[in-house]
Design goal:
The protein is 5% helix and 57% strand. With 555 residues, the chain is mainly beta. It has a domain of 200 residues: Porin (Beta Barrel). Strand 15 and strand 16 form a beta hairpin. The longest helix is centred in the N-terminal third of the chain and has 19 residues.
């Protein structure tokens, strides 16, 4: 397969180049590097040695992508290196890796879209399937195989996939097949006023069960969805049923008992000029789905087939990102911790004051967000079977209430004021068993102001404070950033944990320079340990100290 694709790519490019030397090259290079240093200041107790740099003090993740397009054909390749080791917090499977990671050849016209090699795909909201790349999280779940999308009508298209998911520089044990169909009623009826779309999805994982005849080789998931809009109102529904599979924890089969899973998500919203309201409800029961069943629960989010991000507000500041939520979709049957999934909701409200109002004269925008997530009320029997309620009164996992007020006072000054009240299960935000007595309640206030000057100069100042009686107690933080122009910016930041057993400053000094399509960034300082989240998906990063370099070039 690999040799065939390379030959096809070479022939297409050679043939195209020989015709009239037309076509387009595009791609980019990205490099993220660390030089880690010992830091005995990163300790909470006198007996703590602080941060001790690993043997590989220098670590670097590098990506080079090159694509070529000519007419209906596009071919591409991505080269990656993680030498001598991957950045801290990334899967050790990447350590020392160096070589071609992905490649593809694509043909696309008005009705058909065919890709051979590595490809990315999403069915519906991603609850049943999403293959994607996020370098900041260390995730690349591209599928190597074949993807075909065919539009039977402008209102009806079907996508079929077959392949194996990428796992670092290897492939997963499981083989994935999938079908997805989308039908647009409004387009089919010719009525512009009708906004109604239906979708059906199917995904199957085949994995050799070895000598264990009691676990299935094939695990399939089936889904249906509907999206609609009427005037200023809109909404969507998606439901998934996953077939029976064994439960795995920390790479070991728990038992031969099989469990199925379900997912349900409902979205409702209203939008008009100056006002937006959006609400989401989701229930997940035993809904983790991996390309290799023995990868279930790995802390690096490797080999995930589906996409179940935390539906909470994605915060922008240092202290509002200390207590964050990671979705709890798994079924655990351990004697010490038994749970079946999560259920909860999130609501966002956005309001812009009209210009003729007193507050509108200074450009005031208000955003409010509320989210709550808890465990499903579940009763487990001695044989590890269980009864679960649709919602019930399970353990409280996470609750977040926050407000944001943005003012544009003049052409040269704007401000942002944020308040957050968060209640979190310590096991969710810091790792460990859930449902314990040590819930953390914290309040965070953030004030931000930006002043712009002539010549593209600007000064941004952020002040932050977090209060809590639990965990590491109080924090104070600040950022000062000065932009000399649109290309050069410098900043200094500090998150000071002063309320616990000791005092620690997580300081950072750095800046960035941008010219054209090239950006270079550098900072020196400390990384606070904990969860880092992008788009609701989180990974754990350990505390560290050192120098970080970033280079990105697009062409």
């Amino acid at each position: 397969m690999k040799k065939l694709l390379w030959c096809a790519t070479f022939l297409v490019c050679t043939c195209v180049w020989s015709q009239d030397e037309k076509g387009t090259f595009f791609g980019g290079f990205e490099s993220n590097s660390q030089w880690l240093l010992d830091d005995d200041g990163l300790k909470e107790l006198d007996t703590d040695p602080g941060f001790v740099a690993p043997e590989d003090q220098f670590r670097s993740n590098n990506y080079f992508q090159l694509n070529y397009n000519y007419g209906k054909f596009t071919a591409g390749v991505q080269y990656e290196s993680y030498l001598p080791s991957a950045l801290l917090g990334y899967s050790p499977d990447f350590d020392g890796g160096n070589g071609i990671a992905t490649y593809y050849l694509n043909y696309k016209d008005e009705s058909v879209d065919i890709t051979g090699g590595y490809f990315y795909e999403q069915f519906g909201n991603g609850l049943i399937l999403r293959s994607w790349e996020d370098r900041q999280l260390g995730i690349n779940t591209a599928i190597r195989g074949v993807r075909v999308n065919y539009a039977f009508l402008p209102s009806l298209d079907v996508t079929a996939i077959y392949g194996q998911q990428r796992n670092a520089f290897e492939l997963s044990e499981g083989v994935l097949t999938g079908l997805d169909a989308n039908f647009d009623v409004g387009m089919a009826s010719g009525l512009e006023s009708v906004d109604l779309r239906f979708g059906l999805s199917y995904v199957n994982r085949y994995q050799d069960r070895g000598t264990n005849e009691e676990i299935p080789s094939n695990v399939a998931a089936y889904g249906a969805r509907i999206d609609w809009g009427v005037g200023n109102f809109y909404g969507g529904f998606e439901g998934i049923i996953k077939g029976e599979d064994a439960i795995v924890n920390e790479g070991a089969l728990i038992s031969n008992r099989l469990y199925d899973g379900t997912a349900l998500q409902v979205n409702l919203g209203y939008s008009q000029k100056g006002l937006g309201i959006n609400a989401s409800f989701r229930r997940l029961e035993n809904f983790s789905f991996y390309a290799d069943r023995f990868a279930e629960g790995n802390q690096f989010n490797q080999q995930l087939i589906n996409y179940v991000p935390a539906l909470t507000k994605q915060q922008d500041y240092m202290l509002t990102n200390i207590y964050v939520y990671s979705s709890q979709a798994r079924l655990l049957t351990d004697d010490l911790e038994q749970r079946a999934g999560e259920v909860g909701a999130q609501t966002d409200v956005y309001f812009t004051f009209p210009k003729e109002s007193a507050l509108g004269k200074v450009g005031t925008k208000i955003a409010a967000n509320f989210s709550y997530w808890g465990g499903l009320e579940t009763t487990f029997d001695e044989d590890l079977s269980y009864d679960v309620k649709f919602i019930g009164k399970g353990n409280n996992y996470f609750r977040d209430v926050n407000f944001e007020i943005k003012n544009h006072w003049s052409k040269t000054f704007n401000s942002v004021l944020t308040f957050q009240n968060v209640l979190a299960d310590k096991g969710v935000v810091l790792g460990g068993p859930l449902g314990g007595p040590d819930d953390i309640e914290a309040n965070v206030v953030v004030g931000e102001g930006t002043v712009t000057f002539d010549g593209g100069k600007s000064l941004r100042i952020v002040g932050q404070h977090l209060w809590t009686h639990k965990d590491r107690k109080n924090w104070a933080g600040g950022v000062v950033e000065y932009s000399f122009n649109s290309r050069l910016a410098l900043y200094a930041a500090d998150a000071w944990n002063y309320g616990g057993d000791g005092e620690i400053h997580y300081y950072n000094l750095g800046g960035s320079y941008t010219k054209g399509r090239t950006r270079f960034g550098m900072n020196y300082g400390r990384q606070r340990g904990g969860l880092i989240c992008v788009g609701g998906v989180c990974r754990f990063v350990p505390e560290s100290s050192g120098l970080t370099l970033n280079l990105a070039v697009n062409f």
